[in-house]
Every structure is written in C-alpha cells, then in structure tokens.
C-alpha cells in the first residue's frame, strides 16, 4: 500500500486531519514516541532522554501523548503524515496490540513497545514487536532483599517482625512486584505467617493509607514492620498509616519502587522517616536506549532484540543524590 493511498483511505474513514499527505518525503530519519500518560514524570523523563538521543545522533523525534484508543489512532495517522519511519509506544491499553501491529504492517512503519507490552487477541504478547520493559518480579525482589538486609542490620528478630503487603492484585505488574518481594523475604527466613495483605482500591498514597490502617491496628502487638507495595506512593501511604499509630520511624522499614518525587521527598527530609529506600527505575534506558535502537533499526537495519528487560537500583538517604545525578546525565 502506498503512503498516498493509505492516507486517502484513512482520511475518508474519518481519521485525523492528515496534512502534508502529498508532500515529498524528507531525507532525515523521523521517529515517533507515543506515551499513555504524558503528564506523568516517568514519561516526561522518557521523552527527555529520547530527545537527548535524537540530538546526539541527528534524527527527529515526534513526541505525542495518546491517552486512549482514539488518540492512539490519531497519533499514528499524524506520524504517517509526517513521514515517520518508525515509532515507540506505551499504549493506554495493551489490548490495542492487534490494531497497532496492523497499522505498522499496512504502512511499513517499524514498531517497538516500551513499558507495557502489547498483546494479541489471544492475550499473549505480540512477539513480532520488539519490547523494552521492566522485570517486575526482579524489581520486587530488589525491594524485598533491601528490606531484609536493613532489618538484619538493625538486629530485628524475624519472629517479631511483621510484613505489610499493600496489594493491588488486579494489576499484573503489581502482583509480580509483590511476588518478587515476598519471595526475597522468605528466602531471608521470614515465614508466610508474618505476611499480612492490605488490598487497596487505588494505587496512590491515600488508597494505601486507607488499606494499611485497619491491618496495622488489628495487629497492634507487632512492634516492627516491613512495608512493601507496588510503587513509592503505596509504601509512603503505609508508612504514614504506621506513623499515625505512633510507631517510631526506627521500627518501620518501607521500601518503595520507582524512585519517584514522592520517594525523594521522604528521603530528603531532615529527620529519617519510616520510608527507608526505593528501587530507582531507569527512564533513561526506556527513553534514550529505545529511541537509539529504533534509529539504528531504521537507519542500518539492526532489528532490536525481541525482549529487553531492565532492572533497578536501590536508593537510600545516603545514596539517592549521587545516583539521581548519574541517572540524569544524558
């Protein structure tokens, strides 16, 4: 299918306005980078690092927010109209995979997914689209191992320590992260009987606070707590709930995931809180490295690996400044 005929068909079908459809293709390499929540810091950082790759290697980056299926279609139409040769996408719903894969096949654009892997009609990952994501289980294992190591350093008896698992099990990533964390703690000697789940309705600090408070209150006889969750906001909410029950910061070890602004705000406080650490994820690898991989695929024909999983780095009050500065360098 030619670019002219596809654009004409898309416009006739009521797609986005496709200006420049009859223009000549430019000589430079153009790559799209679509994200589902452009207002979130993680995706802002991905774009920032992708733009750094574009400046360094001399290609054009087209960054577009695509918060729902209609906007994904509009964004893809826009990329095609602007003569992009490939795109990277974190879709608002992985089940959009067949439509996105079909678009790439029809137009000849190369496609990669990042963060959330696209799935087919059978619910399985689409193997034909290279993916860069996070190993949720390994990330969780880092959090659990960090908590176990700090509890050991503080001399906490395993038999007198509770583990608060603030859960959001309807989200696969959340289940996998907490599974990895619990496995790491059990490998360190903590029994299943020490683990208490607190299901949350939302994945923010308020939702975690509401979930954690009744569980902690019901087990007032436990004086020392390890608090885990799928992200930093969840763990901070659990820590605030424990502190609200007059638990001392020294008796709480909260380990979050993300290295977000919420985590940094707690780690930067003049006096230590119960939020001990976070697993810093790398938007640099998900932004810079994916953009570079697409550039090399378009320019040199070097197809990226089918699946690349990134890990993380534990940051604490003592290390977060240096590690964040290193991560920010691009």
From TrEMBL:
The compartments listed are: Periplasm
Recorded GO terms, molecular function?
A: carbohydrate binding
Under the heading Gene3D superfamilies, the entry gives: 3.40.50.2300
InterPro entries xref list: AraF, Bact_Solute-Bind_Prot2, Peripla_BP/Lac1_sug-bd_dom, Peripla_BP_I, TAT_signal
On whether Nucleotide-binding is a keyword of this UniProt record, the answer is no
Can you give the residue ranges of the Periplasmic binding protein/LacI sugar binding domain?
A: 30-302
Gene Ontology cellular-component annotations: outer membrane-bounded periplasmic space
- Per the UniProt record, one Pfam family is Peripla_BP_1
Annotated site (The binding site for the sugar molecule has not yet been established, but C-87 may be involved):
90
Instruction: Give the keywords, sorted.
Output: Sugar transport, Transport
Q: Name one GO biological process term.
A: L-arabinose transmembrane transport
PANTHER family assigned to the protein according to its UniProt record, in alphabetical order: D-XYLOSE-BINDING PERIPLASMIC PROTEIN, L-ARABINOSE-BINDING PERIPLASMIC PROTEIN
The family line of this record is: Belongs to the bacterial solute-binding protein 2 family.
Q: Could you identify this protein by its name?
A: L-arabinose-binding periplasmic protein
Q: Identify the taxonomic lineage of the organism of origin.
A: Bacteria, Pseudomonadati, Pseudomonadota, Alphaproteobacteria, Sphingomonadales
